């Protein structure tokens, strides 16, 4: 009786030694139902997953219980059962993380981009004759960088491009350009030109160093 029990125990022991239980992920396909899997330690194993193997998620880990066999290519695990759970999608966590990565959108464009064009005194190009100037010889031609040297009340003419709004509907900043350089604030006196528009500005130097616009003619 004892011999029979010992034989049975030996048989069960031998059977258990042939079984394997390991967590793996599918990392490749060999042929048919035989797949290559990788365990947690990075070891590549061959396993027969049966006819349902192709339905498993390729990169989601699962626990496989199988029996070690040998075929013409070497060691092979024949799957008996699998312990598999679908991945839990952490929607709230993912949404919170996404919210953290959203950059704050700041609308800091110059208000001139949405400014309505005022009516020019000429339909072909921008002309604003705010002071009814006819005699342009009264205006001294200077570059923007030299304006600060002029006395208050001097009538000047300079070429520049409107590059920024200083005060809405009142003051715009003009730039002399890459060769001349320099910036000057111009009190527009009701005139308006789009940003980037290059113009000849005729004006009068004010005591605060700004220019009071008398006339503006755009340059094509």
Notes on the structure:
The structure is a single chain. The chain has 220 residues and is mainly β. It contains two helices and twelve strands. The protein has a five-stranded mixed barrel. It is rod-shaped.
What would you say about this model in short?
This protein has 220 residues and is mostly beta strands.
Topology readout:
Blueprint (H helix, E strand, L loop, with lengths): L1 H17 E13 L2 E6 L4 E5 L13 E10 L2 E10 L7 H10 L26 E3 L10 E2 L13 E13 L3 E5 L7 E5 L10 E8 L5 E8 L2
Parallel strand pairs: 3-5, 7-8, 10-12
Antiparallel strand pairs: 1-2, 1-4, 2-3, 4-5, 6-12, 8-9, 8-11, 9-10, 11-12
Provide key terms for this protein.
220 residues; mainly beta; five-stranded mixed β-barrel; 12 strands; rod-shaped
